[in-house]
Amino acid sequence: MRPQFRVLRPKVSLKKKPKPCSGKPSRHPVLIAASVGSYGAYLADGSEYCGNYGDAVTLETLKDFHRERVQILANSGADLIAFETTPNKLEAKAYAELLEEVAIDIPAWFTFASKDGINVVSGDSIFECASIANACKQVVAVGINCTPPSYIQGFISSIRKVTSKPIVIYPNRGRETYDGQSKQWIWAVDEEFSEIVIEKWRAAGASLFGGCCGTTPNTIRAISKALSNKSSTM
């Protein structure tokens, strides 16, 4: 096993250890999701934010790239794998086919990223991407991450048209652009989540919530409070 993969199992084991809990106990079990990012993140050229890998990258290229890591994570003790910030339908298809291989037996969710509020970052249709996830039996939820909050509600509605699986959302703090030269995010609009916005997302069909780039513990606290307040009135 290559050295960079040896660290994956210990990280999951450490996170599985019980930790002191303050406040009220959760009604739901804590699950550990092992994160798998896109091929573009490995390239480190900003292509994970545009989904353009070039003609030389094929379905088999992506499957071969991800296979060993996904196999290790499937046997690491994680409860599921989160395939995150998926930038195009080719990589979504690669993930789906990997999950159908005999050596990989673990539930997963797929989340996609967008920069225009209509399609995923490559320009591929969110309907086509979500349909790939929906067709995979081991995918238990589909959604959006690493996307401005203002785009989320529309995407929830779009995803709901092609799947009845739970919808997971964890947007960025606001609207931003990625500078490939400096390899830094440039924030244009700060959009902390409000209780009203979170309730709109839930009403639209989302059932799993979190935060991505730029979010803080305060963001997660606000989400938890909004969901708890709603639950207490039901």
List keywords for this structure.
alpha/beta, 234 residues, TIM Barrel, 9 helices, globular, single chain, 8 strands, two-stranded antiparallel sheet, six-stranded parallel sheet
Walk me through the structure.
Helix content is 38%, strand content 19%. The chain is α/β, with parallel strands linked by helices and 234 residues long. It has one domain: TIM Barrel, CATH 3.20.20. The mean pLDDT is 86.
Largest sheet: 6 strands, parallel
* Helix coverage percent: 25-40%
Cα gyration radius (Å): 18 Å
Poorly predicted runs: none
The arrangement of helices and strands along the chain is: HHEHHEHEHEHEEEHEH
Q: Please tally the helical runs, counting DSSP H or I stretches of 4 or more residues.
A: 9
Q: Report, as a whole number of angstroms, the end-to-end distance.
A: 51 Å
> What is the fourth-level CATH superfamily?
Homocysteine-binding-like domain
Which topology does CATH recognise?
TIM Barrel
Global geometry: globular
Main sheet strand line-up: 1-2-3-4-5-8
* DSSP strand count: 8
Structural class: alpha/beta
